Amino acid sequence: xxxxxxxxxxxxxxxxxxxxxxxxxxxxxxxxxxxxxxxxxxxxxxxxxxxxxxxxxxxxxxxxxxxxxxxxxxxxxxxxxxxxxxxxxxxxxxxxxxxxxxxxxxxxxxxxxxxxxxxxxxxxxxxxxxxxxxxxxxxxxxxxxxxxxxxxxxxxxxxxxxxxxxxxxxxxxxxxxxxxxxxxxxxxxxxxxxxxxxxxxxxxxxxxxxxxxxxxxxxxxxxxxxxxxxxxxxxxxxxxxxxxxxxxxxxxxxxxxxxxxxxxxxxxxxxxxxxxxxxxxxxxxxxxxxxxxxxxxxxxxxxxxx
Length: 306
What we know:
The protein is about 5% helix and about 30% strand.
């Protein structure tokens, strides 16, 4: 066996060392310089980054929430627009300063952002949002991503890549989005929770008819509840794991009269699923009996929604 000296100690040549900044390091590892110090790449948590173009009268600031680690850098690019770089190491970001000043956001690029929780939460004056064809495949958490938006009426998210998302809790909660809301093309195969997904949202018509059968959804509590304007929902093949998955799913959506279909044959549904809604106007007498039975909902296939 051949040996050579590394930092005053003899090592086997087969160990394969290289010199980094005057010191011998194991060659099979990658090293980068961080704040003047060479570090093993495998030991470094690299930031998740997203670039936005933000229209705002005042400098917009995103900051870390709670124990999160992250920040934003905003550069004035003229005409009331700001180039904003979001950097997130752990946890989630939200707008900490001048949220009321933001009127429009265009996504410029996404470089590995995983956690989008509260990212555009409570931007009450925003009237325009442009995904701009940017891939969001890296995102796994969309909890409260577009909730509490008071001024945004139309939102085109047909191109949103949700294939790796596991959490959609509160995603559009209490937003004033209205009209036809078509997100039927989304891949929700990995989503495990839709708790209060559109609770209180102002959408009139919802189409999720093409969602693939996902039996991993453990929580759809109040998913479409307290929606003042919704009249019909094309639900597709969405299924929950247990009866409690459907708790208060359409509660207090008093104008809902047409549900294209929902299959709960595996679980039996939940007795509170249609509490305080008018959905019983549409299904047949036999289906009404199933909805009202002590065992809960078995299967509803109402008149086709307009």
